[in-house]
Write the structure tokens for this entry.
Amino acid sequence: MKLYAETPGLRTRQLVGDLAVLAWMAAWVAAGVALYRLVEKLAVPGARVEQAGSSFAGDIAEIQQKVGRLPVVGGELQDPFGRLAGVGRTLAAAGVTQQEVVHQLALWLGVVVAVVPIVVLLLVWLPRRVSWAREAGAASRLRLDGADLELFAIRAVANRPLRDLHRVTPDPAGDLRAGEYQALADLELRALGLRAQPRRA
């Protein structure tokens, strides 16, 4: 396969097109990352809830231990404080859950925003690019192997618009019958982005 044409005009268009595709992909990746970071900020309240719940549970647990040391009533007072500490732990767990939900939401929104436009572009652009690379690569190998110009001349008559054919010869069919293949073959090779003769080292 050939990645780029040999003729300057087509090669320039291909390079510009490839750079535009890369820029498009980079822009949407950047947009996805920006959206991810923006949505991630929604996790800040959850982090604060987690911190508050953990602090509350820790403080109550400390109080529970101190109350347990009280003579006579200490053991009875420990249970309510234990339940109160459980409320703090529940609050902390809710904060953790909220952060996880926000993280997942931020991740998937960022991925969707980045991936969908890139995939749509690749579905349109990539098949044509690969098709050209295969076709030009095959033609280049035939040309390098010394394939007869008749093959490219026949392809030109079959594939090129009539106005392009008449630019190179007033009678394409006559040229084929007469064995005058050079002009038509050059037309087909140029359409594929190839030179009629490969450069010599």
